[in-house]
Specification:
about 40% helix; 17 strands; about 500 residues; alpha/beta; seven-stranded parallel β-sheet; 16 helices
Amino acid sequence: MSDLQASVAETNSGFHVQGYERIEYDFHFVDNIFDTHNSQLAKVYERWQRCLAVMDQNIFDVYGEKMQQYFDHYKIDLKIHKTRIGEKAKSLETFTSLVDSMNEFGIFRKEPVLVVGGGLVTDVAGFACAAYRRNTNYIRIPTTVIGLIDASVSIKVAVNYGNYKNRLGAYHAPAHTFLDFTFLRSLPEAQIRNGFAELIKISTCAHLETFELLEKYCEEIIRTGFGRKDGASKEVRDAADKINRYGIYEMLKLETPNLHEIGLDRVIAYGHTWSPLHELVPDVPFRHGHAISIDMAYSATLANLRGTISDSDYKRILGLFSRAGLAMDHYQFDEDILDKGTKAILKTRDGKLRAAIPAPLGKCVFLNDVSQEEMFAALRKHKEVMKTYPRNGEGIESFVDASDTGYTMNSKPAETNGAPHVKGVKGVNGHSAMNGHVINSDYEKVSENVPHPSWASQGVTRGLVGDVASSYKHASGPEGVDGLQNGHTH
């Protein structure tokens, strides 16, 4: 939420307006958010006695009944807009579908929308709230590792437009964010690994104690879903809780002074210099965590050549990536990627490279003076070093599948007609019997309108790419690669 303090003064030629916006919002750690013994969420909606929720379809299928029971227990009327937002559906069409539901529900000016899902869902729904009456409150409940640890920290909300990632958006803070790591019980291990990369990112450059905990518990954290899956020991769960708290707190401390991204030297951009381009170069794109891991590992090689990290710390960084099963290299990560990626990111970062590298482990510096010769020499060394690691430095389950795109319902193809029945939810608004309290559902529209690329049968539904040129159109990441279209500048 925000509050504006402003003043107006007369000048010789007119008036001068000066304003300062105070932004404040809260994070709450809570397990089993939809357990009726936890009243925190219900208290937010006591005043209204009703709630409009925007909810990821997969999360609805698993938790929809429990969520309905929760709101019924507190005598709060619940309406749900179901959505399945992959990159292709992170669009104005999905945005307007959400606005339609807000209109139908009759959202009041200060009434908060509840948003439940991963980072793509919170992005689009957050932007809809930012635009609806210019400023509608919302509550976030992220459900993925990246959503919990990384996306929840930011107040950025957006949709894609044309061939550009996050081209239309706003800075709009939620009133509350509830951090419930029990959602990770149902998350595939590949997605746990994907999010693990974000913790390596922040710890390598900003928090050595977290890095040491990741080193100690790496495999167990991934295997047990941060200590939330059955069989996890109390030791692992306690360590995971400490890692999550440290990681989120450190990112908040780094980002809070720069919520509107006025400053471009950003510690959390470690791993995001060349990865925005490389992420979408393969025919089937990389998972984001693997793409930034290749960038981070290469940046560590560059740091080692520069002498900002010792040989022993260099091996520790690469060793952690390898143990986690995260990618450190790929055959298409080559000189062409480095050259084109550098030219692209210079436009985003106002003419400077601003490449974050560890210096030493647990801290970082930003490089602006890396020559092409130095980059290529670091790449040659990096390729040689990767030969000494399992899989030649390639990752485990590195590429997106149906669980990344938002176009499946619990691994069932999006093209399948109908949907699984959710007990206790009645039909309304022309939807099937599973949708009793569903005010709207935009996934049918998505599957009808989204073009299916040649590898859609593999469960992948993102921009059709396979080379560097086409990847300019779709490059992703927190900054994106703006201004390049088919190799031409605009």
